[in-house]
Amino acid sequence: MQLHREAIKAKLQSQFNSRLEDSVDRALEIRHQNIIPNHHFSMVASECVRLYQDGNLTALVMATQALNEGLIRFIEERNGIADQKERKESVENLVKQGIISQKAGDASKRILKSFRNDFHHMNPSVSKVPIKDIAKRNLEDICIIEKELFDCSIVDRKLRLKQCKYWDISKEGVIEVLLR
After folding, report:
1. What's the rounded Cα separation, in Å, for the pair 63 and 75?
2. CA dihedral over 117, 122, 125, 127, signed as positive or negative
3. What is the pTM of this model?
4. Which terminus of the chain is more solvent-facing, meaning fewer CB atoms within 10 Å of its CB: N or C?
5. Strands 177-179 and 35-37: what pairing?
6. Average pLDDT, stretch 97-103?
7. Angle 158-77-30 (CA atoms, 0-180°, nearest 5)?
8. How far apart are CA 72 and CA 82, in angstroms?
9. What's the CA dihedral at 132, 135, 137, 141 to 10 degrees?
Protein backbone atom coordinates (compact mmCIF):
# COMPACT_ATOMS: atom_id res chain seq x y z
CA MET A 1 0.00 0.00 0.00
CA GLN A 2 2.82 2.45 0.87
CA LEU A 3 4.60 1.69 -2.40
CA HIS A 4 1.38 2.42 -4.33
CA ARG A 5 0.94 5.67 -2.40
CA GLU A 6 4.49 6.78 -3.21
CA ALA A 7 3.99 6.01 -6.91
CA ILE A 8 0.80 8.08 -7.01
CA LYS A 9 2.50 10.90 -5.11
CA ALA A 10 5.42 10.94 -7.55
CA LYS A 11 3.07 10.95 -10.55
CA LEU A 12 1.00 13.83 -9.14
CA GLN A 13 4.13 15.81 -8.24
CA SER A 14 5.46 15.37 -11.76
CA GLN A 15 2.16 16.51 -13.27
CA PHE A 16 2.07 19.52 -10.95
CA ASN A 17 5.63 20.53 -11.81
CA SER A 18 5.04 20.20 -15.54
CA ARG A 19 1.98 22.49 -15.37
CA LEU A 20 3.26 25.05 -12.86
CA GLU A 21 4.58 27.71 -15.26
CA ASP A 22 1.39 27.63 -17.37
CA SER A 23 -0.71 27.85 -14.19
CA VAL A 24 1.25 30.90 -13.02
CA ASP A 25 0.81 32.53 -16.44
CA ARG A 26 -2.95 31.91 -16.37
CA ALA A 27 -3.18 33.24 -12.79
CA LEU A 28 -1.56 36.48 -13.94
CA GLU A 29 -3.96 36.85 -16.88
CA ILE A 30 -7.16 37.21 -14.87
CA ARG A 31 -8.04 40.19 -12.65
CA HIS A 32 -10.78 38.92 -10.35
CA GLN A 33 -12.39 40.42 -7.25
CA ASN A 34 -10.29 39.53 -4.23
CA ILE A 35 -13.21 40.01 -1.84
CA ILE A 36 -16.72 38.79 -2.61
CA PRO A 37 -19.72 38.26 -0.34
CA ASN A 38 -20.25 34.77 1.00
CA HIS A 39 -23.36 33.77 -0.94
CA HIS A 40 -24.52 30.36 -2.15
CA PHE A 41 -22.60 30.82 -5.41
CA SER A 42 -19.37 32.23 -3.95
CA MET A 43 -17.53 28.92 -3.75
CA VAL A 44 -18.33 28.24 -7.42
CA ALA A 45 -17.12 31.73 -8.33
CA SER A 46 -13.83 31.02 -6.59
CA GLU A 47 -13.64 27.56 -8.13
CA CYS A 48 -13.89 29.16 -11.58
CA VAL A 49 -10.68 31.08 -10.91
CA ARG A 50 -8.92 27.89 -9.78
CA LEU A 51 -10.24 25.92 -12.75
CA TYR A 52 -8.70 28.45 -15.13
CA GLN A 53 -5.40 28.57 -13.27
CA ASP A 54 -5.22 24.77 -13.31
CA GLY A 55 -6.13 24.54 -17.01
CA ASN A 56 -9.43 22.68 -16.50
CA LEU A 57 -11.09 24.57 -19.32
CA THR A 58 -14.09 22.36 -20.15
CA ALA A 59 -15.15 22.37 -16.49
CA LEU A 60 -14.57 26.14 -16.40
CA VAL A 61 -16.86 26.77 -19.36
CA MET A 62 -19.66 24.75 -17.76
CA ALA A 63 -19.13 26.36 -14.34
CA THR A 64 -19.13 29.91 -15.74
CA GLN A 65 -22.31 29.19 -17.68
CA ALA A 66 -24.06 27.94 -14.51
CA LEU A 67 -22.64 30.80 -12.42
CA ASN A 68 -23.78 33.39 -14.95
CA GLU A 69 -27.34 32.05 -14.88
CA GLY A 70 -27.25 32.03 -11.07
CA LEU A 71 -25.99 35.62 -10.99
CA ILE A 72 -28.82 36.73 -13.28
CA ARG A 73 -31.36 35.17 -10.88
CA PHE A 74 -29.51 36.70 -7.90
CA ILE A 75 -29.64 40.20 -9.43
CA GLU A 76 -33.34 39.79 -10.19
CA GLU A 77 -34.03 38.59 -6.65
CA ARG A 78 -32.11 41.44 -5.00
CA ASN A 79 -34.01 43.94 -7.14
CA GLY A 80 -37.47 42.44 -6.55
CA ILE A 81 -37.89 41.19 -10.10
CA ALA A 82 -39.69 37.92 -10.77
CA ASP A 83 -37.49 35.17 -12.21
CA GLN A 84 -37.77 35.15 -15.99
CA LYS A 85 -37.05 31.87 -17.72
CA GLU A 86 -35.50 33.44 -20.81
CA ARG A 87 -32.08 34.60 -19.53
CA LYS A 88 -31.21 36.79 -22.54
CA GLU A 89 -34.43 38.77 -22.07
CA SER A 90 -33.72 39.00 -18.34
CA VAL A 91 -30.32 40.53 -18.99
CA GLU A 92 -31.72 42.95 -21.57
CA ASN A 93 -34.40 44.06 -19.09
CA LEU A 94 -31.81 44.52 -16.33
CA VAL A 95 -29.79 46.76 -18.63
CA LYS A 96 -32.86 48.67 -19.84
CA GLN A 97 -33.92 49.34 -16.23
CA GLY A 98 -30.42 50.58 -15.34
CA ILE A 99 -29.90 47.79 -12.80
CA ILE A 100 -26.73 46.60 -14.53
CA SER A 101 -24.53 48.43 -17.01
CA GLN A 102 -24.39 47.70 -20.71
CA LYS A 103 -20.87 46.34 -20.14
CA ALA A 104 -22.06 43.80 -17.55
CA GLY A 105 -25.09 42.95 -19.70
CA ASP A 106 -22.90 42.32 -22.74
CA ALA A 107 -20.60 40.12 -20.63
CA SER A 108 -23.54 38.07 -19.37
CA LYS A 109 -24.99 37.67 -22.87
CA ARG A 110 -21.63 36.53 -24.25
CA ILE A 111 -21.56 33.75 -21.64
CA LEU A 112 -25.14 32.82 -22.52
CA LYS A 113 -24.02 32.41 -26.15
CA SER A 114 -20.92 30.35 -25.30
CA PHE A 115 -22.15 27.02 -26.69
CA ARG A 116 -24.22 26.30 -23.56
CA ASN A 117 -26.32 23.50 -25.06
CA ASP A 118 -23.29 21.88 -26.67
CA PHE A 119 -21.59 21.66 -23.27
CA HIS A 120 -24.69 20.96 -21.22
CA HIS A 121 -25.75 18.05 -23.42
CA MET A 122 -22.20 17.06 -24.52
CA ASN A 123 -23.22 17.31 -28.14
CA PRO A 124 -20.64 16.03 -30.65
CA SER A 125 -20.20 19.61 -31.86
CA VAL A 126 -18.52 20.47 -28.53
CA SER A 127 -15.31 18.98 -29.94
CA LYS A 128 -15.15 21.84 -32.47
CA VAL A 129 -15.56 24.65 -29.90
CA PRO A 130 -12.49 26.88 -29.37
CA ILE A 131 -12.42 25.86 -25.71
CA LYS A 132 -9.35 27.85 -24.64
CA ASP A 133 -10.74 31.11 -26.01
CA ILE A 134 -14.26 30.52 -24.67
CA ALA A 135 -13.00 29.56 -21.20
CA LYS A 136 -10.83 32.65 -20.84
CA ARG A 137 -13.48 34.98 -22.23
CA ASN A 138 -16.19 33.50 -19.97
CA LEU A 139 -14.03 33.99 -16.89
CA GLU A 140 -13.16 37.54 -17.92
CA ASP A 141 -16.88 38.19 -18.37
CA ILE A 142 -17.66 36.76 -14.93
CA CYS A 143 -15.02 39.13 -13.54
CA ILE A 144 -16.76 42.09 -15.21
CA ILE A 145 -20.09 41.10 -13.65
CA GLU A 146 -18.56 40.47 -10.22
CA LYS A 147 -16.76 43.81 -10.26
CA GLU A 148 -19.99 45.62 -10.97
CA LEU A 149 -21.93 43.81 -8.25
CA PHE A 150 -19.27 43.35 -5.59
CA ASP A 151 -16.76 46.14 -6.11
CA CYS A 152 -15.42 47.37 -2.79
CA SER A 153 -12.43 49.05 -1.25
CA ILE A 154 -10.79 49.15 2.14
CA VAL A 155 -10.66 52.59 3.72
CA ASP A 156 -9.37 53.09 7.27
CA ARG A 157 -9.46 49.29 7.77
CA LYS A 158 -13.17 49.23 6.84
CA LEU A 159 -14.78 47.60 3.86
CA ARG A 160 -16.54 50.15 1.65
CA LEU A 161 -19.17 48.63 -0.64
CA LYS A 162 -20.24 50.20 -3.93
CA GLN A 163 -23.59 48.33 -4.03
CA CYS A 164 -24.76 47.29 -0.57
CA LYS A 165 -27.87 45.49 -1.84
CA TYR A 166 -25.73 42.62 -3.12
CA TRP A 167 -24.09 42.01 0.26
CA ASP A 168 -25.71 40.51 3.37
CA ILE A 169 -24.99 42.92 6.21
CA SER A 170 -25.95 41.86 9.73
CA LYS A 171 -27.62 44.22 12.21
CA GLU A 172 -24.20 44.60 13.82
CA GLY A 173 -22.72 45.71 10.49
CA VAL A 174 -20.83 42.46 9.93
CA ILE A 175 -20.43 40.95 6.48
CA GLU A 176 -19.38 37.40 5.72
CA VAL A 177 -16.92 37.49 2.86
CA LEU A 178 -14.82 35.12 0.84
CA LEU A 179 -11.19 36.16 0.38
CA ARG A 180 -9.49 34.87 -2.73
Report:
1. 18
2. positive
3. 0.89
4. N
5. antiparallel
6. 98
7. 55
8. 11
9. -170
